[in-house]
Amino acid sequence: MSDILLQAENVGIRFGGLQALEALNLTVRDKELCCIIGPNGAGKSTFLNVLTGTLRPTSGSVRFLGHDSAGLPLHRIARLGIARKFQIPSVFPNLSVEDNLKVARWGAPSPVRPVGELLELVALGNRAATLAGELAHGQKQWLEIGMALAIEPRLLLLDEPTAGMTPQETLATAQMLLRLKGEFSIVAVEHDIRFVRALNCETLVLHQGRRLRSGPFHDIESDEMVRDVYLGRR
Amino acid sequence: MIARDRNWLLIFATCVALAIIYPFFAGGYQLTVIRDALIFGLFAASLDFFWGRTGILCFGHAAFFGIGGYIMALVTLNDAIPFGSLLGIMGAVAGAAFVAAIIGYFLFFGGIRGSYFTIVTLAMGVICQQAAVSWSSVTGGDSGLIGIPPIEFDLGGLHVDLSQDLPSYIFVSAIVAMTVLALWLISRGRWGTVLTAIQDNEIRAAALGHNAPLRLLVTFVLSAAIAGLAGALYVCMAGLVAPDLSGLLLSTEVIVWVAVGGRGTLLGPVLGAIFIQRAQQTISSFNPSLWPLLLGCVFVIIVFVLPDGILSIYARLKGLFKGRRRAQ
Amino acid sequence: MDFLITTLLNALTLISILMLVGLGLAISFGLMNVTNLAHGEFVTVGAFAVYFVQSIGGSFWLGLAAAPIAGAVVGCILEFAIIRHLYSRPVSTVLATWGVSLILQQGLELTFGLGAKPVTPPIEGTLDLVFTVYPAYRLILIGIAMLTLLGVILLISRTPFGLDIRTVIQNREMAEGVGINTRRTYAIAFTFGAAIAGLAGGLVAPLAIVLPQMGVNYLANAFFVVIVGGVGSIGGLVAGSVFVGGLTSILNYQISPSLAQAIVLLAAIVAVRLRPNGLFNGASR
Ligand SMILES: Nc1ncnc2c1ncn2[C@@H]1O[C@H](COP(=O)(O)OP(=O)(O)O)[C@@H](O)[C@H]1O
Ligand SMILES: [Mg+2]
Predict the structure, then answer these.
(1) Strand A33-37 vs strand A202-207: parallel, antiparallel, or unpaired?
(2) Best mutation site among A21, A37, A46 for ligand 1, i.e. most ligand atoms within 8 A of its Cβ?
(3) pTM of the predicted model, to two decimals?
(4) Pocket of ligand 1 (CB under 6 A)
(5) What local confidence, expressed as pLDDT, does residue C18 receive?
(6) What pLDDT band is residue C267 in, cutting at 50, 70 and 90?
(7) What's the pLDDT score for residue C277?
(8) Segments making up each domain of chain B, as ranges
(9) DSSP one-letter code for B59
(10) SS (H, E, C) chain A
(11) Cα(C182) to centroid(ligand 1), Å
């Protein structure tokens, strides 16, 4: 019990007539890395929203460090130690890369890493003065990861961090995360199987809002059913 | 970034220098004209501090100017209140801030932004003017209140008496310069950077732990407080207060000053206020109903021709020049 | 009893006008996301149309027919010259339409001169309604407003053009995908809203003080209607009008009109804080 950071039990959510999520369980231990995969529309982003407390589940419960965070204002959730990278890259386009990271640090209750270190971590050391709006797509994604790191989270939730990246960038991102593994818990939602393979961690497969399989990635990868609904397409 | 800061300080220093040497060349009347224009410049800077940094347009900012003016008038005209000038200024600032806090609380925490905010503040301005007209037992109705004494107070052994042209000019210039500098420091520092982030993407800023509604509210209240200060200064210099000080026309004129001077520059709006008022006086002496017509045209022209203000002409010319050089 | 009925009818008069003026705003502000600060001038132009027709010897009814046409013409020009170029720049739209509003006001003043313009109602006198006697023209006004609203509901729910509008509102991209010319639909909807506001101006002309600056009060109130009622449904429009119009009429009896306005503003702000999507759409959030 002691090292459980986030626990979702029997989570379900309805949007009007659509049962977007149903009977989902997820336990994230302290400093653990895990992945959620699934085809488009499976409910991955919705599940992340429930995990962060931005969406209240219609059934079941989510507890972060034993507290219910559902319905809290966004900034309070952030101050609990939950950082999040959105699916659509959302950096502040009119601020420089450095200022983006500064804004992120200022929001944290007790920032530790200096901006310089963050810049190096996300491989943007030579772009500090560039306006974030002028970065390449992949670099924006990295900057967002850097911003999430800046608030010194207990839990980092990443929604499709490698969307739109080249294969090299995808691998670099995976390595970035592996380097951070062990500092805090990470939940990564992904679409790109190469990325998940590189991370090689506990994986939850979603399909139409339900758990299809869960377990270590090499078990998942060899699963016939998962191949059929998901991997078979690649 | 650094170069931009240096440029700003350079222009600021030039303006301060000009303000210092101006009294050596100008007569008493000209001093008072510039003094009054500077007060409106302060008002413009207060709007720019909010609009320029948050991107949210307040369409009733004159309400705060008027509230400040009326409170100042009522306090200084009441013989029973001691230290009228100082208390009046404090009351004016506090009153404007209070109204802004109430309205801002409901709007910002209710998730109201953008056009909705603009509309509600527009209505607020309309109502303030109507209230000033119809609550005549207190506000003097249509004709307002007259005979407001000049500012006079003792502060730490210093006796300040602004009944003469030169002292009042110096006092107003100093306040405007200090306020604009302070606002600039605030908006280029941490506070302003986070505001820019909120303007760019409020949800993202909140997800990083920033309390966006609170920050917008505080900025709005500060902006209103300075507008109230400007209103208080103005009525003491003019000696009277009237409903149109909180009216829609002034609310829209201040928008033009900011837009023409350059939104987000703080200094531009002050200069915009001075120059456009000069233009207004010249044109109105010609035909008084021509000014609103022209003002309307200026609005349309700004939007289609000069979206970044007069100062952008300079930047554009520079860009053109640079582009040529590179092409060669 | 007769006091109650009179208050009710007064409220109904105001509510009718607000619904007509608010309709155009619900279209432009609510659905197209265009903040048109010149909307009040459509009302002014409608009122001046009636005045103008009467001043050259025409009847009130001829003037009332001219009012929506005048509103439509001004609205159409505004849409073509300004608004369609600024769809992606909301603050610029605010500034430009405000500029147009000033130009129109001053243009009317230069053309027709200073001072309030007299407009005579088509029927003088009152009607005996058993419980109370009430000015006959006001009853006509309420009737015409209700019929117009009914017409609009039928137009939107029963005609091909209404279907286009509903599709564009639901999803602009999808509408373009199925071949609806969204620009044209916007332009027509905007012009239509302007025409209805012009009609409202014509209707209030005999009751109001007809001045070039008369539009701004209708503008502020109509925005409240749309904000309070929420956008996207006739029900919201009616709810907003009843809220703003009803509250104003009731308060007008007790206190001075401007204090009543201030209270309505505060009530509207509080209502928005409690139900950000409008009174009528509260459940959907
Ligand atoms: N706010 C919402 N209202 C209604 N339906 C929604 C909402 N958010 C998501 N959905 C639906 O829920 C399903 C899951 O969406 P999402 O979580 O974005 O999938 P993924 O991220 O896996 O691609 C989709 O069918 C989507 O249309
Ligand atoms: Mg998704």
Answers:
(1) parallel
(2) A46
(3) 0.86
(4) A 15, 18, 20, 38, 40-46
(5) 93
(6) confident
(7) 62
(8) 2-274
(9) T
(10) CCCEEEEEEEEEEEECCEEEEEEEEEEEECCCEEEEECCCCCCHHHHHHHHHCCCCCCEEEEEECCECCCCCCHHHHHHHCEEEECCCCCCCCCCEHHHHHHHHHHHCCCCCCCHHHHHHHCCCHHHCCCEHHHCCHHHHHHHHHHHHHHCCCCEEEEECCCCCCCHHHHHHHHHHHHHHECCEEEEEEECCHHHHHHHCCEEEEEECCEEEEEEEHHHHHCCHHHHHHCHHHC
(11) 27
Cite the DSSP H helix spans in chain B.
2-25, 28-54, 62-77, 84-109, 114-134, 136-139, 165-188, 190-200, 202-207, 212-238, 248-261, 267-286, 290-305, 311-327
State in Å: Cα B26 to ligand 1 middle: 69
User: Which overall architecture, per CATH, does domain B2-274 show?
Assistant: Orthogonal Bundle (1.10)
Calculate how close chain C gets to B99, using CA atoms only, in Å.
Answer: 11
Nearest to A92 among B1, B200, B212 (CB): B200
Domains of chain A: 1-81+155-161+182-234 (3.40.50.300)
Give the start-to-end residue ranges of the domains of chain C: 2-214
Contact C61, C54 (CB under 8 A): no
Q: What ipTM goes with this model?
A: 0.86
From residue A146, how far is each of A120, A152, A165, B212, C24 by CA, in Å? 9, 10, 16, 21, 47
User: How do residues B195-235 score in pLDDT, each as one tens digit?
Assistant: 999 999 999 999 999 999 999 999 999 999 999 999 999 99
Minimal-distance CA residue to ligand 1 atom 4: A15
pLDDT band at residue A234 under the 50/70/90 scheme:
very low
